[in-house]
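call fold(seq) -> C-alpha cells
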Amino acid sequence: MSFRIEEKLSIDKNRIIDFKIFLNKRAMKTIYQPRKIQSLYFENQNYEMYTDSLEGLRPRKKIRIRNYPNTKDTNIYLEVKISSDEGRFKTRKIIDSNKFNHLKTNGIFDSQYGLCKPCLYVVYDREYFIIGDVRISIDNNINYKLYPQNIFQSDHNSIVEIKTSIRKNLDTLIEDFPFQKKRFSKYCNAVEKMLYK
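ret:
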C-alpha cells in the first residue's frame, strides 16, 4: 500500500484558466489524455460514510465502482478509499459486469459500515498534469445522479486535486500552490445536493 498526501481546491470554473496559467509557469506537463470518469458510490442506510467524511473522522472509507466511458479502458473497478491516522490510500480491483450487477442488486458488506447499497453516481471530465513529484488533476463538468432514479444535479465549480508522496513536506506543498484549500468531497457534495437539499 502506498500512502499519499492529498489536497483539494474548489475553484470557480470561470477562474480555472487562471489556475492553468499558474501551472504552466511552473513547467506543468500533461501525463494522460483527458477522460470522463463515472463512479457509483455505495453507502449504508444511515449514511455514515458521508457523516464520517464531513466530520473528518478516521479511519473512514468511501466505496465506489468506477469506469471510464468512451475510452479504451473498458474495465470496471471496485475501489475503496481509506483515510487512516497513517495517511490515505486506495485499493482497487477489476470486476466483471456480472459482479457489478450483483453488487448493484445485493450491495457490498463492509466490516466497518455493514451492508452498503448503491446510492448515487458522480460523473465528470478529468485532466491530468504533473509538476516534479506532484500530480494535479482538474475535474470539470461535474454531475451527480441519484441511483436508481434519473434525477440529476450539476456542480458549477471545478475541483483540483493535488497528490504527492507522504514523504513530501506539507508546508512546501502549500507554498507551491498558494490557492485556498479546503476539505472537499464530490461524494459529500453530491449527497448534500441530491438528498439534503
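The beta strands are 4-12, 29-43, 60-67, 76-84, 87-95, 108-110, 114-131, 134-146, 151-155, 157-165.
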